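re: ur msg from earlier - yeah i can do the iron/sulfur cluster complex, just paste it... oh wait u already did. ok heres what im feeding in:
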Amino acid sequence: MTTPVLEAQPLRNCPFCPRLAAYREAQQNAHPEWFNAPVPPFGDEHAELLIVGLAPGLKGANRTGRPFTGDYAGGLLYQTLCKFGFAEGVYDARPDDGLALRRVRITNAVRCVPPQNKPDPAEITTCRRFLTAEIATLPRLRAMLALGAIAHQTVLAALGLHRGLFPFVHGRVHELPSGLVLADSYHCSRLNTNTGKLNVTMFESVFAALTRRLDCPNHNSRGELLRGGPGPPLARE
Ligand code: SF4
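and the outut:
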């Protein structure tokens, strides 16, 4: 029996979610100069860290065509990536700003912009095939960062893991059976920062834990030596 090949990138006019396809078409008519299509991942094709958000923002990634580019959440995310050495250049909220990611790739659980930033559960499930395929294209992947509970649950489902075993907790770094780690953060949205659910210190703490983990693969995020001795337990070939 042959294993089916998963398509990592949807078609520009992907029809799998009728509600989102209709919303996309409405935006194409209203704003023909915008991207208005499934937003592809951005970053290092040999990434060790995959960051997963929820879905493109209407005037952010849906407008510019690059994840987290052009809205408030992107400002905080890219500023943090630059601070921790995961990005080179200057983020200028444009897909042609020359920013380059190092060791990191960014995508969303849902590739098309949803009305009110709220994809339906069926849409999240339908689009998961592209996240699953994206993960499979990253041979050096060692860690994932879920921005928000929906991204967290979608990552677990894409990896075939039961969400009950790994509850979403901001700041937690889960050790997954495959050797991957999954870090959780509240989404870096304007709403979360305005309400104080997430602040810059909290967000940077997550990246500090991930950086320690990526730079010292035989130790967990608390600095403890992992079982298995000095080998590279997080390598995933
Ligand atoms: S959200 Fe994903 S599956 Fe749904 S229409 Fe867009 S690209 Fe296709």
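cool cool. Strands lie at 42-43, 49-53, 87-88, 100-101, 104-108, 143-147, 173-175, 181-185. ping me if u need the other ligands too
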